[in-house]
Write a structure and sequence with these properties.
With 404 residues, this protein is of the alpha/beta class. The protein folds into two domains: 135 residues, Aspartate Aminotransferase, domain 1; 255 residues, Type I PLP-dependent aspartate aminotransferase-like (Major domain) (Aspartate Aminotransferase, domain 2). It contains 14 helices and 17 strands. The protein has a seven-stranded mixed sheet, sandwiched between helices. α7 links the parallel β7 and β8. The longest helix has 21 residues. It binds 4'-deoxy-4'-aminopyridoxal-5'-phosphate (PMP). 4'-deoxy-4'-aminopyridoxal-5'-phosphate binds next to α4. It comes from Snuella lapsa. It is an enzyme of class 2 (transferase). It catalyses: (sulfur carrier)-H + L-cysteine = (sulfur carrier)-SH + L-alanine. This is Cysteine desulfurase.
Length: 404
């Protein structure tokens, strides 16, 4: 039986105080906290087998290589990729997106079209704009409605034989909307376009099966799912990764180097130039093990319970407006108090030991759509409790009284 109170014991940071108050951590969409099991993996790596991988004959190097490649297998199994070499270990979602955006430079021509959505994080907008600048391709945007949902009819009309790529996040980090990616993928494939799904916010909350989705590229960051920062993954279908040129040149990614010509290594190494974040990759595997011992299904249903409870309680506060009111949403509550700047609310909450994020959440087009400078964002993880939501609600009421 899942009990958040028991799970919390795995997270040493949750025992600390902030400004003399017990920490209440609701900034999980920015980064999740790290359980002792993952911390132990990091300590074990640096204490016992820290070595560079793939090239060494010595024992430490072989141990590190084995563990790193085992982590790749865990990631492969977790996302249900067909082959381990379809998992490229990167420094995170942003890096993964840039590998694909950079690779498509030689595959697009002027007048080709690429589609993003109005709900994207800047890291799923800017690399495509840069790609358009390099190639003369045209960027089209799937618009959203007031509930924070993408307009699928307009999407249907945007698609044509000119569409080469479609990029959408699975779950919006700013609003929590779960996008209809199954439909988006199917429709894009009908016109022969490839699809990249940004799963940075989805991977901690829902089960992802890249084969069932039939998605071409799927990207994620370990630090959103109880792993360390600076590591993430790019899943790509083998056939596409083979066509895509390498992103960076360097060691590890070559088959043979002469001054006349260099040939590239096979997948996944073609995209893994230089010494990777070895410890981070191994710890990513440990984070996946940890989340799977609880079970993504259990996590999702508990978080939904918390989301419903928090939404109901916060809406009881007069003058509080929630942005992102789709029925298909998870884990994020973005809100404002009428007449009060989100930054001021966040600062008072911090004094009370409550960590939320304020601002545009790297999604300025969404803020422009609602014509607001930003929101206060409380984002939920499975180690949060109803008691913490009560503390948050009390804090917001206090902030409102102090600031009005
Ligand atoms: N996309 C989404 C939806 C995100 O939430 C984030 C992180 N906030 C990113 C991309 C970028 O992830 P990272 O900073 O780990 O590269």
């Amino acid at each position: 039986m899942f009990k958040a109170e028991d799970i919390r014991k795995d997270f040493p940071i949750l025992k600390r105080e902030v400004n003399g108050k017990p920490l209440v951590y609701f900034d999980n969409a920015a980064t999740s906290q790290t359980p002792q099991q993952v911390i132990d993996t990091i300590v074990d790596y640096y204490s016992n087998y820290n070595a560079n991988i793939h090239r060494g004959v010595h024992t430490l190097s072989q141990e590190a290589t084995d563990k790193y490649e085992q982590a790749r297998l865990k990631i492969q199994a977790h996302f249900n990729a067909k082959h381990a070499h379809e998992i490229i270990l990167t420094s995170g979602t942003t890096h993964s997106i840039n590998i694909v955006a950079s690779g498509f430079t030689s595959l697009l021509k002027a007048g080709d079209e690429i589609i993003v959505s109005a709900l994207e994080h800047h890291s799923n907008i800017v690399p495509w704009q840069m790609l358009c600048e390099r190639t003369g391709a045209i960027l089209k945007v799937i618009p959203m409605n007031q509930d924070g949902e993408l307009l699928m009819e307009t999407y249907d009309n945007l698609l044509s034989k000119k569409t080469k790529l479609v990029f959408v996040n699975h779950i919006s980090n700013a609003l929590g909307t779960i996008n209809p990616i199954e439909y988006i993928i199917e429709k894009a494939h009908q016109v022969g376009a490839a699809v990249l799904i940004d799963g940075a916010q989805a991977c901690p909350h829902i089960k992802i099966d890249v084969q069932e989705l039939d998605v071409d590229f799927y990207v994620a960051s370990a630090h959103k799912m109880c792993g360390p920062t600076g590591v993430g993954m790019l899943y790509g279908k083998e056939a596409l990764l083979k066509i895509l040129p390498p992103y960076q040149g360097g060691g590890e990614m070559i088959a043979e180097v002469t001054f006349e010509k260099t040939t590239y290594a096979d997948l996944p190494h073609k995209f893994e130039a230089g010494t990777p974040n070895i410890c981070g990759g191994i710890a990513f595997g440990a984070a996946i093990d940890y989340m799977n011992t609880i079970g993504i299904g259990t996590i999702a249903s508990y978080e939904n319970e918390l989301l419903e409870y928090a939404t109901k309680k916060l809406l009881e506060i007069e003058g509080l407006k929630i942005y992102g009111t789709s029925k298909r949403k998870t884990s994020v509550i973005s809100f404002n108090l009428e007449g009060i700047h989100p930054y001021d609310v966040g600062s008072i909450l911090d004094k009370l030991g409550i960590a939320v994020r304020t601002g545009h959440h790297c999604a300025q087009p969404i803020m422009n759509f609602y014509n607001i400078p930003g929101t206060v964002r409380a984002s939920i993880a499975f180690y949060n409790t109803k008691n913490e939501i009560d503390i948050l609600v009390e804090g917001v009421i206090k902030a409102k009284h102090m600031l009005l």
